[in-house]
Design a protein that fits this description.
Elements lengths: L1 E2 L1 E4 L15 H14 L3 E2 L8 H13 L4 E7 L2 H10 L6 E8 L2 H8 L3 H16 L5 E6 L6 H14 L3 E6 L6 H14 L7 E6 L6 H11 L3 E4 L13 H10 L1 H4 L1 E2 L7 H12 L20 H9 L27 H10 L2 E2 L2 H18 L4 H12 L6 E9 L6 E9 L4 E9 L2 H10 L7 E9 L8 E9 L2 E9 L2 H23 L12 E2 L3
Protein name: 2-isopropylmalate synthase
Organism: Paenibacillus rigui
GO molecular function, one term: metal ion binding
Length: about 525
């Protein structure tokens, strides 16, 4: 297997996406996670661009070990010197220098002739070579340059000591067959090509960044430049998780492998998404919410019989929480029965049919039926309340100054009593969570929250997804409400109920069999 080096530029090219700016402390945390993920090279920033970026690159160079650190620079002496200073304490380092090569860039951006550009490339690589052994050079906009000048530029920088040649598809223009063929021509036609490494750097303007990167690998490239979640300028860069899992899943066909540890992919993806405040598209391959979820009844039936019928990867090996079956209007009886059985409930045929009719009515209205809603339907069907607690009512007092206050009425179904709890916080969510926590018999940590608008206008519903942790496990609750605070409160309550049920289940709490001949374990 050919070893493909993964060059991660999330903290440089990825951060150049509008609104994706990171604080130096955030960069350091992400860099540590990238090293744990197993990337070969980290490009932590553009040192000359700001004092904060210089500090972040310098600190990452000092503190993050086991990975090569790359300083980024234009073909300008001041940029190069800044990148060299910022990375001087790294265990292993390189300099990445770029210079425009296409006619459109030379004529309208640099306003320089080809001869002038070649001289700049030579002199700046020679200057950098005095301080750094490993120098990566990128002819920017290479895919719109033309072979003659591209070859001339690459030969010039190799003569001056460049050791890695990165040929970028800067504007995402190339088709896979064109991009792969370009590398083949360069490797065959450029003098000195046998003494350097070749790298691919693709943008996703036409949605071809991963396909182009795979074409480059087939052509002989040994390094690919990527970003987590595919973040980056315009439509982004080649997605780390998509490229890595394409190689991992089809390694025999590609004859290639990487050093990435897949079990860390999901956690790194989530960290980058939250740090940049960039939500991940539901249908994003590998890490999207729907990537390993199935609603269609035919698919669900196949998955319940054998996961490989409709999944080519195991999400748990990627660190993705397992939530294979999503119940909605396309779900069949088999999937509903399976999910109900996970609650410890066995329904007879008559009860199952009654539940199925009610389920379809709810699914037509809400699109997706979440566990808390299904439990309520099952409870009505068997005349048993399955949730440990119900949020009966909640009120929040908020304002422009001071702490927010919340009052919650919560029913404990084990005793049949309703109690009032109150909480305060800097925000209304914190106040609601503080109040609800008081009703619980165990410690539960609020670990994550996602909010989505499901429609437009003043009467839009909000969907809240809340994750809690308890006893080392994570539990997710979902709720939809026109009042987004109520959606959060109900989602938190649903997640807490899951945690309580699981703990009681592990403790072996079993209720009596109801008189309607349904075998049921009461959590």
């Amino acid at each position: 297997m050919k070893r493909i080096r993964i060059f991660d530029t999330t903290l440089r090219d990825g951060e150049q996406a509008p609104g994706a700016s990171l604080h130096p402390e955030q960069k350091i945390v992400i860099a540590r996670q990238l090293a744990q993920l197993g990337v070969d090279v980290i490009e932590p920033g553009f040192p000359i661009s700001s004092p904060g970026d210089f500090t972040a690159v310098q600190q990452i160079s000092r503190e993050v070990h086991g990975v090569e650190i790359c300083g980024f620079a234009r073909a300008v002496k001041e940029d190069i010197d800044s990148a060299i200073r910022a990375t001087q304490d790294a265990e292993r380092r390189r300099l990445h220098m770029f210079l425009s090569s296409s006619n459109i860039h030379l004529d309208f951006q640099l306003k320089k002739s080809r001869e002038q550009v070649i001289q700049i490339a030579r002199s700046m690589v020679a200057h950098a070579k005095q301080y750094v052994d490993r120098i990566e050079f990128s002819p920017m906009d290479a895919t719109r340059t033309g072979d003659e000048f591209l070859f001339e530029m690459i030969e010039a920088v190799i003569e001056e000591g460049a050791t890695i040649i990165n040929i970028p598809d800067t504007v995402g223009y190339a088709l896979p067959e064109e991009y792969g063929a370009m590398f083949t021509r360069v490797m065959k036609g450029v003098r000195g090509s046998g003494q350097v490494e070749f790298s691919a750097h693709c943008h996703n303007d036409l949605g071809l960044a991963v396909a182009n990167s795979l074409a480059a690998i087939r052509a002989g490239v040994t390094q690919v430049e990527v970003t987590v979640n595919g973040v980056g300028e315009r439509a982004g860069n080649c997605s780390l998780e998509e490229l890595v899992m394409a190689i991992e899943t089809r390694k025999e066909a590609l004859g290639a492998e990487t050093g990435i540890r897949p079990e860390h992919i999901y956690s790194v993806s989530q960290k980058v998404s939250r740090s940049m405040s960039f939500p991940i598209a539901f249908n994003k391959p590998i890490v999207g919410r729907n990537a390993f979820q199935h609603e269609a009844g035919i698919h669900q039936d196949g998955l319940l019989k054998n996961r490989n019928t409709y999944e080519i990867m195991d999400p748990e090996k990627l660190g993705v929480p397992r939530s294979m079956i999503i119940l909605g209007k396309h779900s069949g009886r088999h999937a509903i029965k399976h999910r109900v059985s996970q609650f410890g409930v066995q329904l007879n045929e008559e009860q199952m049919e009654s539940l199925y009719v009610k389920f379809k009515e709810l699914a037509d209205r809400d699109k997706v039926v979440h566990d808390a809603q299904l439990l309520e339907l099952v409870g009505h069907t068997v005349n048993v309340v399955l949730e440990p607690y119900t949020l009966v009512n909640a009120q929040v007092l908020t304002g422009t100054t001071g702490n927010r206050m919340a009052s919650c009425i919560i029913k404990d179904h084990s005793t049949g009593t309703e109690n009032i709890f109150s909480g305060t916080g800097e925000g209304p969510v914190e106040a609601l969570v503080a109040g609800i926590k008081q009703a619980l018999p165990m410690e539960v940590d609020f670990t994550d929250m996602e909010l989505y608008s499901l429609s437009s206008g003043e009467q839009a519903n909000g969907e809240a997804i809340v994750t809690v942790s308890a006893h080392g496990n994570h539990f997710k609750g979902v709720a939809i409400h026109q009042d987004v605070l109520m959606a959060v409160a109900q989602a938190f309550m649903a997640a807490c109920n899951q945690a309580v049920r699981e703990v009681r289940k592990q403790g072996g709490a079993v209720g009596a069999t109801p008189s309607n001949e349904v075998e049921i374990t009461i959590p």
